[in-house]
Write a structure and sequence with these properties.
Elements lengths: L18 H7 L5 H6 L8 H6 L21 E6 L4 H4 L4 E7 L1 E10 L16 H19 L4 E10 L9 E10 L2 H22 L2 E10 L2 E2 L2 H15 L4 E4 L4 H7 L4 E6 L15 H24 L1
Parallel strand pairs: 1-9, 2-8
Antiparallel strand pairs: 2-7, 2-9, 3-5, 3-6, 4-5
Helix pairs in contact: 1-8, 5-6, 7-9
């Protein structure tokens, strides 16, 4: 049994998530882009990891660490409200959502805010605004946990006296089903073209990042359910919207499962993030049971 402390899951310093696990999993194929990344102090990513003896050019050699791995188990806070809404401390994770992340650039024409009649405006922000509302319907109609987020819009010239000429909009779409995720993206792109025509503006899409949904091992999910019921009385299966290192390990072909422990108020990435001590205790007990069951499963294998 090995305990793993992955490097830079969040990507907070350089904006690139799952650094260590993608190297170990063998999916890291963006070394050229990684070499260009710098933090707010001007330190490059190769310099930062090099200070700890990591050679970016040899990072994929870490995949040898998973060659003999028979299973991977991870315990994590839920970072969402589902378990709390069900009054349950623990849940078994089905897998991680696939993600489609794009930058959408709307281009209109800057014009004086006072002298340009409403019907003659080519307002780039109007297209972004329409799409920001439309993606709510896309998520709701797709269902099964679908989420769409317009996380930011940057407008230029960005002054109160001018119609917006360009609006750069960020769009994040997630689903556990690859076909439904693709459909969500196609619908958003189709609507964007319709909105551009309505507003007499142009629209262009640029993919920032994407990852396919990753499903966890069915046998291990069942063992996780059993372990949770033994220590907490009831379990619930749920997908993970956030990404985790477990996704990269599963992607590498290692049987994987996660346990979620309840997050108070469903909040994460905020100073209000918290989990009850008694829930942490029962989650560790569940992980211990799951580890024992997994060892027996591998030995019988």
């Amino acid at each position: 049994m090995r305990l793993v402390d992955w490097a830079d899951e969040e990507g907070a310093r350089f904006g690139r998530s799952l650094f260590g696990s993608s190297a170990a999993g063998g999916s890291m194929a963006d070394q050229d882009e990684l070499r260009k990344l710098v933090d707010r102090d001007g330190v490059s990513l190769p310099e930062a990891v090099g200070a700890f003896g990591v050679d970016l050019d040899r990072a994929l050699e870490a995949s040898s660490q998973l060659e003999s791995a028979a299973a991977y188990l991870e315990l994590h806070i839920e970072q969402g409200p589902v378990l709390e809404s069900l009054d349950l401390p623990l849940g078994a994770v089905l897998g991680t959502f696939g993600v489609e992340r794009h930058r959408i650039t709307w281009t209109g024409q800057a014009a004086h805010a006072g002298s340009t009649p409403m019907e003659q405006r080519r307002d780039a922000l109007a297209g972004a605004a329409k799409l920001a509302l439309a993606i709510r319907d896309i998520a709701r109609e797709t269902g099964d946990g679908a989420v769409c987020t317009s996380g930011g819009v940057v407008c230029k010239p960005g002054i109160v006296t001018s119609v917006v000429e360009t609006a750069e909009q960020l769009l994040d779409q997630r689903h556990l089903d690859a076909a439904k995720l693709a459909s969500m993206l196609a619908r958003a792109q189709k609507l964007s073209r319709e909105f551009a025509a309505e507003e007499r503006i142009d629209v262009a899409w640029e993919r920032l990042w994407s990852i396919q949904p990753i499903l966890f091992d069915e046998t291990l999910i069942g063992l996780a359910d059993d372990a949770i019921r033994e220590v907490a009385g009831a379990s619930h299966r749920l997908p993970s919207g956030p990404l985790h290192d477990a996704a990269e390990v599963a992607r590498a072909g290692v049987p994987t499962v996660m346990l979620f422990v309840q997050s108070l108020r469903g909040l994460s990435h905020t100073k209000l993030e918290d989990t009850k001590p008694e829930h942490i205790e029962v989650s560790v007990a569940a992980l211990d049971r799951l580890a024992s069951k997994t060892i027996d499963w591998v030995a019988a294998g």
